[in-house]
Amino acid sequence: MASKNISIALILTINLVFFGFTMAQAPGPQAPICPRSLTQVQACGNGLTSIVGGLNILTPRQCCTLVAELDVSLASVCICDAIKLSLLNGTVEISVRLGQILRSCGVAPPEGFICA
After folding, report:
1. Domain count of the chain?
2. The domain containing residue 46 runs over which residues?
3. Which region is the signal sequence (predicted)?
4. Which of 19, 67, 73, 82 is most enclosed, with most CB atoms within 10 A?
5. Could you give the CA distance from residue 74 to residue 79 in angstroms, rounded to a whole number?
């Protein structure tokens, strides 16, 4: 009887240890989210009016204020959201436009960033 109790206690202890290891792992990286409000992103998107298959890059003032004082990756996410809002289901190459807008605001676009 005592050996049965010891066996059960050992199995429970091993289970608790392995359960603890699986729960102690850090969560994976999460996609960045634009910290600006939706109205700020919409103002930038409204400034990017569609012109015959392209975007009006000449007046990105709203977008430059949107990305002011942001990290490059967060700025890219915010501009990406604004482009998606202005195009809705457009077929313009978003990553090219993203780079143009960021460069016009004085921000170097990140390497390999994909607007998803």
Report:
1. 1
2. 38-104
3. 1-24
4. 82
5. 9
Nearest-angstrom CA–CA distance, 51 and 17: 62
Query: Do the domain assignments include residue 112?
Result: no
- How far apart CA 77 and CA 85 sit, in angstroms, is 12
| CA–CA separation, 41 and 69 (whole Å) | 15
Structure-model confidence comparison of residues 112 and 91, the more confident one: 112
Query: Residue 101 corresponds to which tokens in the numbers above?
Result: 């807008």
Is residue 115 a part of any domain in this protein? no
The whole-number pLDDT of residue 72 equals 86
Q: Establish if 25 belongs to a structural domain.
A: no
Q: What is the pLDDT of residues 33-89, one digit of tens each?
A: 888 888 888 888 776 654 434 555 555 677 888 888 888 888 888 888 887 777 665
Helix (H) or strand (E) holding 81: helix 72-87
Give dist(CA 67, CA 77) in Å, integer: 9
Instruction: Give CA–CA dist 19/17, Å, rounded.
Output: 5
Question: Is residue 90 included in any domain, yes or no?
Answer: yes
